[in-house]
Design a protein that fits this description.
single chain; mainly alpha; 2 domains; binds zinc ion
């Protein structure tokens, strides 16, 4: 999985203008973003924008459009890849996936999510309300 973050870093490395520390920070930001995408993608609303915001200070102005393009492209590819990796009911670290919901008793639901939205069959209705809510958020942010 760290191949993904290193691939993003390699693509960006030649434009980093903040020296050795900048290189370390850009690599760390890429690792953070991919890791979060792998383990927490349902709550990671704008992976590309988040990573771009983290790395942008390390690049000169003229390189930033290219940096944004790279980040966007790679985060999209990473997301697709991670979705296919987790199709077997495990996350990218091999941990079993669990439904994102909680039971009536307030404990995490232990059922296996069967859909891409991360909910088990009995909690599918939650994905519906969530979709409505988050499209509202996007409108507000725009
Ligand atoms: Zn559930």
């Amino acid at each position: 999985m760290y191949q993904l973050s290193r691939a993003i870093y390699r693509e960006l490395a030649s434009d980093i203008a903040t020296g050795k520390r900048g290189h370390a920070e850009v690599l760390q930001a890429c690792e953070r973003a991919v890791e979060r995408l792998a383990t927490d993608r349902h709550y990671f609303a704008q992976p590309a924008r988040t990573l771009y915001r983290d790395v942008r200070p390390h690049f000169p102005l003229h390189a930033q459009a290219q940096v944004w393009a790279v980040v966007q492209q790679y985060m999209e590819v990473s997301d697709q890849l991670l979705i296919s990796l987790t199709a077997g009911g495990r996350d990218a670290f091999g941990n079993p996936l669990k439904c994102r919901s909680t039971t009536r008793r307030g404990t995490p639901c232990q059922r296996i999510p069967v859909h891409e939205n991360g909910y088990c069959p009995s909690h599918q209705h939650l994905a519906e309300t969530e979709r409505t809510k988050s499209s509202g958020d996007i409108r507000m942010a725009a």
